[in-house]
Amino acid sequence: MDDVASRGMVLLGCGRMGSAMLKGWLDGGLNPRAVTVITPNPSDWLRETGVHVNAPLPADPAIVLLAVKPQKMDEALPQLKSLGNGNTVFLSVAAGITLARYEEILGAQTPIVRAMPNTPSAIGRGITGIVGNGHATQAHMDLAQSLLEAVGQVVRVADETQLRALTAISGCGPAYVFHLIETMAKAGEGAGLAPDVALQLARATVAGAGALAETASEDPAQLRINVTSPGGVTAEALRVLMDEETGFPPLLERAVAAAIKRDKELSA
Ligand SMILES: NC(=O)C1=CN([C@@H]2O[C@H](COP(=O)(O)OP(=O)(O)OC[C@H]3O[C@@H](n4cnc5c(N)ncnc54)[C@H](OP(=O)(O)O)[C@@H]3O)[C@@H](O)[C@H]2O)C=CC1
Ligand SMILES: O=C(O)[C@@H]1CCC=N1
């Protein structure tokens, strides 16, 4: 992090993901004057942080975070080409865009790390997968990891195929869980609960079960069994949800396959 403080950091794009990560770093003590953000419509929050916004680039920043939408990368990235082929590590959170594509735009000698975070990063509870290209040294990977650890856990994956699978699980995963909350609340309403009570129950249940799954010594399967009294109520619900033809297992498999298919399309 001393390197980032002295050489600087650049953020390309500062929407949901970029600002969640920047907030984590600033909260962790990063000097805002070490940060230059390039983004077309800076938010009030961003302007008030004290970072340089749409200012000239530092000559040799330690790191550049790429946090624009994948569809915008071809248009936005070439302006940073002068920082390629050097000792600036490019850390991208964009889904789908491959290390090879970054090398094409920035130069084949550029150190590049692809990362896939998720939105709980905004509260320091994210999980991010990373993979580097051939020019990302151990020191570059360590720098990327320590920056990402400011917003949650980090796992290193072996290659980009693994990152694609990770994207479909933990990158997109918060959306699956939020939809579970929505649908539980809806089902509660359907069963006669007031909408606000149904939502309160669904939200607290998912949050509480998540915290229990994270801290308990038992695995999730055992935690499920702990809820399921023999011959009781949960068993009947699980008979529906765990059905091998129509329950969660085939449904989630289809959802993950659809996410992977789209990730492949974005990298084509
Ligand atoms: N949201 C998520 O859960 C996750 C997202 N990601 C990845 O993070 C990346 C960003 O996603 P997210 O933060 O959700 O998207 P957002 O749209 O919130 O953020 C993208 C930002 O990039 C800005 N931008 C657009 N064009 C340019 C440009 N030419 N130069 C600089 N900045 C530009 C946008 O500005 P404006 O809005 O004004 O156009 C916006 O502020 C994506 O690549 C996505 O794949 C990864 C993991 C999880
Ligand atoms: O939906 C997307 O494409 C991004 C990647 C993972 C989460 N959001």
TrEMBL record:
InterPro entries in alphabetical order: 6-PGluconate_DH-like_C_sf (IPR008927), NAD(P)-bd_dom_sf (IPR036291), P5C_Rdtase_cat_N (IPR028939), P5CR_dimer (IPR029036), Pyrroline-COOH_reductase (IPR000304)
Subcellular location: Cytoplasm
Catalytic EC class: oxidoreductase
Pathway(s) this gene product operates in, as recorded in its UniProt entry: Amino-acid biosynthesis; L-proline biosynthesis; L-proline from L-glutamate 5-semialdehyde: step 1/1
SUPFAM superfamilies: 6-phosphogluconate dehydrogenase C-terminal domain-like, NAD(P)-binding Rossmann-fold domains
Alphabetized UniProt keyword annotations: Amino-acid biosynthesis, Cytoplasm, NADP, Oxidoreductase, Proline biosynthesis
Domain of life: Bacteria
One Pfam family it belongs to: F420_oxidored
EC assignment: 1.5.1.2
Pyrroline-5-carboxylate reductase dimerisation domain mapped to chain residues: 160-266
Domain Pyrroline-5-carboxylate reductase catalytic N-terminal positions: 11-95
Alphabetized HAMAP family for the sequence: P5C_reductase
Family the UniProt entry places it in: Belongs to the pyrroline-5-carboxylate reductase family.
Protein name as annotated: Pyrroline-5-carboxylate reductase
Organism in which the protein naturally occurs: Celeribacter arenosi
Gene: proC
